[in-house]
């Protein structure tokens, strides 16, 4: 059919762009394969392959045919059909109805490739093309200038046959191959710091389960939960949009890419995103973490053509098998020897949805092609209706280390993700993580002061509340954030500043923060009639005018949303007037728990969702209880003791299998006090005991602005790790890290840190400017003078020492413990309000009030006997 007679010489070698046409596949990267099997990842795919690259430098398409796996020589009548306009109705119809090719390349009897046009069919265009074989003729590289095929940077569709006997794709009636006319250069990774990307998909958000409701925040809550899990993993994160996925240069510097949910994507970018992700995974070994389906649907909800799961199979090596519902289910720990499952026991219940009978499930397995199957590890299993179990969380290694959760709930509702992030980023290397604090957890208390604008109530509520805060501060070093309603209906409903101002200033003096809860406490900020600027900007201006500073010397503009949870647009509208915002509750079944971070990639201010229940919800509205007869939920109010137990359980869930977790506890001013307007089912004990629980667990009490600032610092920090056997070199690039720490978990403890003297067994305490820390690990700690504990909320500004003496500057209040190289009596302590001996090798320094202290440990001067005393004693001895 295509016998061509010509006599041109074989082109031995020619180099353009990143490809050298020499018959070798050395320069070709795995992601440049364009005929990956739909059901296999690149790392285990075998067979005949086609590679493609386009160079805009010389407007040329490059191709390689690779038949080494099948040991098939590429001989005469091998043909590459080209559809250059991507219109199947134009051009030559192969087998009477396929492709619509405008051109084809044919290997002639002389073994050389020539280009022909099909209009009219068989018209010689050019030849031989620049090309080269390998010695076995199982690799053929060639190039086609776009000018020869009448296209200027157009995508091409291809069908190929080898020797008129082997077809690529194997079924010509399947989708043709696509050669993208876009440069997919491979930029060098220049930023070697540890970091992950969290991707926000507008297409997926628009198809999310709350898409038909007026409040669309569930996707943002999931997006923030991924940020929070990155914080627990100790890996700084950056936020990407869906459009960023089309540019490999925006991805190369990440260790792992996290997709909160990415089932839906823009059809116009589909090929580019897929190509870029293949590059990220296989050319740069970047890990992927996601849940549910990946790139299975376009933005309008329609399924992608062909096998909708092909992209996730090729990238993750995982594909969906089946699913059903409604069911009850539990999530249980699987292979606990895997590094992503640290701290779990085999079979341990991670999530229990048996009381929620309307769940749906999906299950996935390693991609398979005949006897070839992607190897996966089952990190967790799901048990359906108490009988049947399927894999629920799978780990795979394709190009990078990947983790796939079978549902968004499994990824968002548990604390599994942070350790999965650490494994994806570090693999078997020593894990080093940046921590938001030095304690076991962070506990931020949010108080909505609903009675603050009711004149007759302030004396009954705010005054005794101040007494409680003083007591809790003395006993537990407790602080929190308090949000005032200003009122706009004098005289009954308007803040009386002559009475309230001194009270609130005492709140602030205790270390608390004062912010706005709006002017009039609108019950639904989503109502278009609510004046956001008046409610939040105006009220905060008034608060600042009376209370400046509102927190630790700063006039912070913090706010808490009243009433009904607000949607994303309202939250962003409020945030423009504030430094941060604490909004509606977010937890399992009502959004996603632990939603702390940024609502979208475009936001620059931190948003905090309470992850513990409001006192009013528990005591007066009630928790949802399922009625099996009516198959509906009804609210069941709790008693004070029941509410305390509920908070305890929530706190335990938040901190279980976690790493420096955050608990955000919302309550009201009237809860532990007496109100003449409200029947009061509350008790002081339910609040005191919750605070005691957190304190005894090792929590650090912080304000909301303190937490927001730490999150911002964490996101903007950079951490570089170099493992050197028993030593770890850590570089932290930050200008506000004085409340943060780096943690090196494991069986060994910190033996010493070169020229640095603030650490405990597994954490190095950072100063404001951070820098380079060379940490030696061992079984015991070197006997050097070093800070071993620092007070809650304190900021270490600078530190100098030599292993014996110490000089440091700190901002804060509370108690500092210092391990001493020599005995207590050897040292002179200055700068602190008080120094007390704990043991002969340990001192405790007390800072009585919040301030900046310069503290020094110096050597006491040697006792000196005066010359006169010496002379007198000597003379007296002689006289006698």
Give an overview in words.
This protein is an alpha+beta fold and 880 residues long. Helices cover 20% and strands 33% of the residues. The chain has 15 helices and 54 strands. A 9-stranded mixed β-sheet has the order 17-16-18-20-30-29-28-23-24. Strands 5, 8, 9, 10, 13, 14 and 15 form a 7-stranded antiparallel β-sheet that branches. Helix 2 (218-233) packs across helix 6 and helix 12 runs parallel beside helix 13. The longest helix has 22 residues, at 455-476. The termini are far apart.
Summarize this structure as a short list of keywords or feature phrases:
880 residues, alpha+beta, 9-stranded mixed beta sheet, 7-stranded antiparallel beta sheet, 15 helices, 54 strands, 20% helix, globular, disordered N terminus
């Amino acid at each position: 059919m295509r016998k061509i007679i010509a006599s041109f010489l074989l082109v031995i070698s020619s180099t353009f762009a990143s490809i050298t046409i020499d018959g070798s596949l050395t320069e070709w990267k795995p992601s440049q394969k364009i005929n990956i099997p739909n059901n296999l990842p690149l790392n285990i795919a075998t067979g005949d392959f086609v590679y493609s690259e386009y160079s805009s430098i010389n407007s040329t398409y490059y191709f390689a045919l690779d038949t080494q796996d099948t040991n098939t020589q590429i001989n005469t009548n091998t043909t590459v059909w080209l559809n250059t306009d991507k219109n199947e109705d134009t051009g030559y119809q192969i087998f009477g109805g396929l492709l619509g090719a405008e051109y084809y390349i044919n290997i002639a009897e002389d073994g050389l490739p020539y280009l022909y046009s099909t209009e009219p069919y068989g018209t010689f265009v050019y030849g031989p093309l620049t090309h080269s074989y390998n010695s076995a003729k199982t690799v053929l590289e060639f190039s086609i200038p776009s000018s020869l095929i009448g296209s200027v940077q157009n995508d091409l569709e291809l069908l190929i046959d080898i020797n008129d006997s082997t077809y690529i794709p194997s079924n010509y009636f399947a989708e043709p191959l696509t050669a993208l006319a876009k440069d997919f250069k491979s930029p060098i990774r220049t930023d070697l710091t540890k970091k992950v990307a969290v991707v926000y998909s507008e297409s997926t958000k628009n198809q999310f389960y709350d898409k038909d409701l007026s409040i669309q925040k569930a996707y943002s809550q999931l997006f923030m939960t991924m940020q929070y899990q990155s914080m627990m993993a100790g890996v700084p994160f950056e936020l990407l949009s869906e459009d960023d996925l089309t540019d490999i240069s925006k991805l190369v510097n990440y260790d792992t890419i996290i997709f909160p949910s990415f089932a839906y994507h823009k059809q116009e970018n589909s090929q580019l995103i897929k190509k870029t992700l293949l590059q990220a995974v296989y050319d740069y070994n970047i890990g992927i973490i996601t849940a549910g389906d990946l790139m299975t649907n376009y933005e309008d909800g329609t399924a992608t053509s062909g096998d909708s799961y092909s992209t996730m199979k090729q990238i993750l090596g995982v594909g969906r098998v089946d699913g059903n519902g409604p069911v009850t289910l539990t999530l249980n720990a699987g292979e606990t020897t895997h590094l992503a499952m640290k701290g779990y026991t085999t079979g341990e219940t991670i999530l229990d949805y048996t009381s929620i009978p309307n769940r749906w499930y999906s299950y996935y397995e390693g991609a398979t092609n005949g006897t070839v199957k992607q190897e996966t590890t089952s990190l967790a299993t799901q048990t359906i209706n108490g009988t049947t179990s399927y894999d629920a969380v799978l780990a795979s290694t394709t190009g990078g280390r990947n983790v796939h959760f079978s549902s968004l709930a499994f990824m968002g509702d548990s604390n599994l993700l942070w350790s999965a992030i650490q494994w994806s980023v570090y693999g078997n290397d020593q894990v080093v993580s940046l921590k938001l604090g030095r304690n076991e957890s962070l506990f931020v208390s949010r108080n909505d002061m609903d009675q603050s604008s009711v004149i007759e109530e302030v004396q009954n509520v705010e005054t005794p509340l101040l007494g409680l805060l003083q007591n809790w501060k003395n006993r537990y070093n407790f602080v929190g954030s308090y949000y005032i309603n200003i009122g706009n209906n004098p005289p009954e409903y308007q803040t009386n500043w002559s009475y309230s101002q001194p009270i609130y200033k005492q709140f602030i003096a205790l270390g608390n923060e004062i912010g706005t809860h709006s002017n009039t406490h609108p019950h639904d900020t989503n109502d278009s009639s609510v004046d956001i600027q008046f409610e939040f900007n105006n009220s905060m201006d008034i608060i600042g005018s009376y209370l400046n500073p509102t927190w630790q010397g700063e006039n912070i503009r913090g706010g808490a949303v009243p009433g009904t949870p607000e949607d994303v647009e309202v939250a962003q509208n409020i945030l423009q007037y504030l430094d941060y915002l604490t909004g509606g509750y977010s937890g399992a079944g009502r959004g996603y728990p632990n939603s702390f971070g940024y609502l979208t990639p475009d936001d620059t201010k931190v948003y905090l969702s309470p992850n513990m229940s409001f006192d009013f919800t528990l005591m007066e509205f009630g928790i949802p209880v399922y009625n099996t007869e009516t198959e509906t939920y009804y609210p069941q109010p709790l008693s004070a003791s029941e509410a305390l137990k509920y908070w305890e359980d929530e706190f335990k869930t938040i901190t279980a299998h976690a790493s420096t977790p955050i608990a955000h506890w919302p309550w009201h001013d009237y809860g532990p006090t007496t109100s003449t307007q409200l029947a009061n089912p509350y008790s002081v004990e339910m609040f005191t005991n919750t605070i005691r629980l957190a304190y005894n667990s090792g929590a650090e009490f912080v304000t909301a602005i303190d937490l927001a600032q730490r999150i911002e610092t964490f996101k903007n920090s950079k951490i570089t790790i170099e493992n050197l056997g028993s030593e770890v070199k850590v570089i932290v690039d930050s200008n506000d890290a004085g409340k943060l720490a780096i943690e090196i978990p494991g069986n060994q403890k910190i033996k010493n840190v070169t020229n640095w003297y603030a650490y405990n067994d597994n954490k190095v305490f950072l100063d404001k400017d951070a820098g380079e820390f060379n940490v030696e690990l061992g079984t015991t700690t070197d006997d050097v003078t070093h800070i071993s504990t620092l007070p809650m909320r304190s900021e270490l500004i600078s530190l100098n020492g030599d292993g014996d003496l110490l000089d440091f500057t700190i901002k804060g209040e509370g108690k500092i413990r210092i391990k001493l190289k020599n005995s207590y009596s050897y040292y002179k302590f200055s700068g602190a309000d008080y120094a007390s001996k704990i043991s002969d090798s340990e001192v405790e320094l007390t800072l009585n009030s919040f301030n900046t202290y310069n503290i020094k440990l110096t050597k006491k001067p040697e006792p000196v006997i005066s010359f006169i005393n010496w002379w007198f004693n000597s003379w007296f001895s002689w006289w006698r």
